[in-house]
Every structure is written in C-alpha cells, then in structure tokens.
Amino acid sequence: MNGSTVVTGAAGGLGSAIARRLAADGHRLLLVDLAGGVDELARELDCAACRADITSEAGLDQVATAAGSEVTALVNNAGINRDARATKLSADDFRAVIRVDLVAPARLATRLRSALSGGVVVNVSSRAALGNFGQANYVAAKSGLIGLTRALALRWAPAVRVNAVAPGLIDTPMTAAMPGDVLEKLVARVPAGRIGSPEDVAAAVARLCSADAGYVTGQVLFVCGGRSIA
Question: Is the pTM of this model over 0.70?
Fold first, then answer.
C-alpha cells in the first residue's frame, strides 16, 4: 500500500495486535504512542514510529508531518480510563478521558483529512458506549466517538470512509488486573462464552481498512461476543 497507515495507542495490547495484523496485510505503518514500547514494536515490524502526545497541537503536528501527504488509513485506538462512581468522579478525570478518547481522535482525523482522500478512518470505541457502571466519563467519550464516526462519514463521503469498532471484554493487561472472581462473572455474561482476544478486534479493524469493506461507511461493528445484545 502506498500511503501511511497511522495507528495510535500502538504500544498497548490492543494497539500492538492491530499493528501486527495490518503489517501482515501489507500496510505501511506509522505507529503513534507516548510509551517507549512503540519504538520496539516499530523495530519488530520494520516500520516508522512517532512518540507524540496527540492531545497537544504540537503532537498533532508531529503525526501529520510523519504521516506525509498520503494516508491510507487512520486507526484511532489511543484511549485511557479513569473509573469512579459518577458522584465521586473528579472534573479532572472526566476531562482527561474526554480529551484523550474523544477530542484527540477528532482532532487527528481532521488534521489528516486532506491526506486521507480515498482512505479510511477506523475509530476504536467500546461496547461500554451502551452504558457501564462506574465509567460515566468513558461511556460519554466512547458514545461520543460513535457519534463522531457517523457525522464524519456523512460529511466526508465519498472521499473518506469512516467506521468504528466497539470491543467488549477483551484479554488485555487492564482486564488481567481485575480480581479473578470479578472477571469470571463478566465472562459469564458474554453469550459467546469466552473473553475476546486482541486479535479478534484486530481482525475487525483490518476488515474495515480493506477494499472488501469499500461500501461500508458510518457503521459500528461490535466485537463483543454478543454482549451488546445480551
């Protein structure tokens, strides 16, 4: 593929799985993250890395410069969570999650818009967008990201396709840190009967980035083992 494929949050468990799958599919990657692990992953995949804070204008400029004038795909995967009961959620934690999980993807997509002509944006939302206890800020950000996906899909068609994936319970370091009994109860609520793997999500992202999804835009693909309908 000629243009760059930009993956944010690439050093994390989900981001690295997405990067590996897209590399295997022939994408020329630009991996974006603040964590040092992004450099190691870039060496493994023989691709470019950009250590940038995409919540800042300077960081957005860094990514735009590194991506160049042609971008095949943008995968907005970077995200954080700051969980607490709504009555105990601080304003700073609310703003931090909105800034990273919603504002940064919106700003990066618009910054790369001219380079994306003929390309695709995949926003990584979450099944939590349908509602989760103790995650009011995260739910607001991830549901907002779905709204952004639909708005940009309408505004940028037919030049750019914009879709989202919404993972459910996925085997990442964050879920691995949960108490065993809590995780067991959550898995029991998944109709598919198992926790998802990062590769499950990566496969969905890769599909939406491919020509096989050329007639798909403005859509949200839940990768949650059926939890969104349970």
Answer: yes
